[in-house]
Amino acid sequence: MQRIWKGIGLPAYNATASDKTAVCHDRFVLSHDNASKTPDWVVEVLTKAKLTNKLPRPTFEFSPDPCIPPNGEPDPGDYAGTADKLEIGHMAPSEDFNNSGINMSDTFVFSNAVPQGGATFNQAIWRSLELQVRKAAIARNKIYVITGPVRGDGVNHVINIAMADNACGGALELDAFNTKIVCKAVNQHTATTCATGVVAPVELYKIAYDPQKNRGFCLPDGEPQ
Q: Is residue 187 left, alpha or beta, with left meaning phi > 0 and alpha meaning psi from -120 to 50?
């Protein structure tokens, strides 16, 4: 699947990174962190030609990704009935591939998802951002999109992003929280803490890159930087 990412390359890990699994799907590629049971990043290419809006969002349930080792796979019950009402949320959304039922169904794997707030985030702000990304792809004919979680360290309650590291301008302070893990045992009230489970991110990110202009741009207005 080099054709998906060869125009921008792939994110690089530092020397201390471990227990990662690279996964190639037909329309997106990702690197999975088996310790947190979530992806570090998901790369996709969106084109105007393929965003036909031909098909509605399917109603599939998420399922294990056969490319992920057993220690990296969540239990489906990890997401069911969480106390914080967290839902399983796509990184590469199925609607990005709405010209193909096969490609849409391909996105419903745990390796392409993280815990997200439901009605207040996944179905609201995040859904709106995904729509803006598709509009940008239609307007620009082709863009690359990298999506993934920002994880806290369980210690610092603020994550600082310097102005120099933010292509859209300005320093950022992201609110963090103590590490949250969602798991079946707590959801079913058979345990008070999770020995294993899925790590919930403190934030999520999307990077949109225009290969024609060789630069990224900020959403929702789509102005290049």
A: alpha
Could you give phi then psi for residue 79, rounded to 5 degrees? -95, -5
The rounded Cα 92 to chain-centroid distance in angstroms is 6
CA atoms within 13 A on the CB side of 218: 8
Where do the structural domains in the chain lie, given as residue ranges? 2-224
Beta strands at 142-150 and 203-210: parallel, antiparallel or unpaired? antiparallel
The Cα–Cα gap between 206 and 224 comes to 15
* CATH code 3.40.50.2300 for 2-224: no
| Distance from C-alpha of 110 to C-alpha of 107, rounded to nearest angstrom | 9
Q: From first to last of its 225 residues, what are the pLDDT tens digits of the chain?
A: 557 877 788 888 887 889 999 999 999 999 999 999 999 999 999 999 999 988 988 888 999 999 999 999 999 999 998 888 889 999 999 999 999 999 999 999 999 999 998 888 888 999 999 999 999 999 999 999 999 998 876 666 667 777 776 666 677 777 666 678 999 999 999 999 898 899 999 889 898 999 988 887 665 554 444
Establish whether the linkage from the previous residue to 211 is cis, with ω within 30° of 0: no
Pairing mode, strands 20-24 and 28-33: antiparallel
What is the spatial distance between Cα 74 and Cα 153, in angstroms, rounded to a whole number?
20
Cα–Cα nearest to 106, from 122, 83, 130, 90: 90
Predicted TM-score of the model (pTM) = 0.88
